[in-house]
Write a structure and sequence with these properties.
Length: 126
């Protein structure tokens, strides 16, 4: 199994396994009960500065992705950093569903995070 991504607005199902919100801000209109989270890992989300610069424009996605990967790499250097903790969840659970609030399912930070996890040895499902 491994890591998968899913919009937090989609219904929670048992097959999601361990559910982790990877947004820095709580998604609008979603109650804690509806989110059915096991964990909120806002530390692995893009920095507030990077998030505000990007503004979800497709034409800047490649630049955003490169800068976000650099943030993840920098945080990974700390053995107790958030990316390391997320990688460990992949070994502790059969499936880890990374939840995000973006409307576009293909152009968002969770896609970049999933790729980053795969590059660091995590099993991912696409």
């Amino acid at each position: 199994m491994g890591f998968v991504i899913k919009r937090v607005y989609d219904p929670a199902v048992a097959a999601d396994g361990y559910r982790v919100l990877v947004d820095r801000l709580w998604p609008r209109g979603v109650s804690k009960a509806r989110a059915a989270l096991d964990e909120w890992a806002k530390e692995v989300a893009p920095s507030p500065e990077l998030r505000s610069e990007w503004h979800h424009h497709r034409e800047r996605f490649d630049e955003f992705a490169a800068r976000y990967r650099a943030e993840l790499d920098e945080a990974e250097r700390d053995a107790h950093g958030a990316p390391s903790a997320l990688l460990k969840l992949g070994t502790a659970h059969d499936r880890v569903t990374l939840l995000f609030g973006a409307h576009d399912e293909r152009v968002n930070h969770a896609v970049v995070l999933l790729d980053w996890l795969a590059e660091h040895g995590a099993a991912v499902e696409r």
